[in-house]
Amino acid sequence: MTDRFAVASHLMPTYARADLAFERGEGAWLIATTGERYLDFGSGVAVNVLGHAHPALVEALTDQAHKVWHVSNLFRIPEAERLADRLCAASFADLVFFCNSGAEAMEGAIKTARKYHAVSGHPERVDIITYEGAFHGRTLATLAAGGQKKYLEGFGPVAGGFIQVPFADLEATKKAVGPTTAAILIEPVQGEGGVRVVPPEFLRQLRQLCDDNGLMLVFDEVQTGIGRTGDLFGYMHSGIAPDIMALAKALGGGFPIGAFVATAEAGKGMTAGTHGSTFGGNPLATRVGNAVLDVVLSPGFLENTRRMSLLLKQRLAELKDRYPSVIAEVRGEGLLLGLVCVVPNTDMVAALRNEKLLTIAAGDNVVRLLPPLIIDDSQVAEAVAMIDRACAKLAQAAKPVTETAV
Fold first, then answer.
1. Which residues pair with 96 in a beta bridge?
2. H or E segment at 328?
3. What residues are paired with 185 via a beta bridge?
4. Which of 232, 48, 206, 13 is nearest to 128 (CA)?
């Protein structure tokens, strides 16, 4: 491949882009402008939940495009009302606000948690407890919530009101709770942070801690929501529910849409004029969102996701045993899986791309596998064969060279 910066571009250079472009997609496959086919186990960073060019999404998008795209939230939007009804019927929530991205959804969730306390007579309760390794978005507030210095550097004063504690540490969480605490914010699985699964028992303990102290429990399900973990939402693995939850990524199957949802009690402060979005929940986005739910909620869909997860995990465990100098651990839930690498994860991503498998690097030296939820046995087999070949080459390269006696 040519140098990734060899092609001049007026795009702001905030991404280290690979010198690879795609012209079309078919299910779990992407076809490059060169004609080469790549198996997409990145799904646009957990977005393309139904793969590429899914007929139900194409039909919904094109049909709605001939009707009305955008009207603003100054008027009722039937498709948005329908999508909100369905999200509430399938979850703990009573109220939904639609926006355009995961960061916006998280901003709204944070505002909702703080507003709840303000209208409940405790405006001093503004602090939100978060966890090391978290990633909640790229806005100034969500960067502060994530707390990662590499993302915060150079952007001025860090937004206040966020208290970070070690990952899944109950005692540290309890110590952080005080009279100004408003909420606890957590991802059921830290995706960007290295596919670190939060133990269900810890989530149950957080629910009890919030109940005992009158706090809001907020789940960031931007990456885990809409089937990625094998259930419709990641919180369902724990047997408890949050008060507020943020969604995006898979909600539109590739069309930009986000949402934050809440119980009626948690959302009681979000009245007319407290929040808004120009584009959020427009007819085009919510029509596609409804089409995504049509497929994901269809009989047997999530059962197949769980089956594919189990199959892929088993095969990856075999590769870990075969290549201990390359893979140290397999972790994750559903089809949000991670390979903890011995070699640099960027080397693994590059080696897999050379085998025509697309994956995504994450923290903790992890490679994320985020295939579309529509994958089948044959595509799991192809992916495993690609990973096998990449590992073999990386293992060979890692072997010390021994001198031959003369």
1. 261
2. strand 327-333
3. 218
4. 206
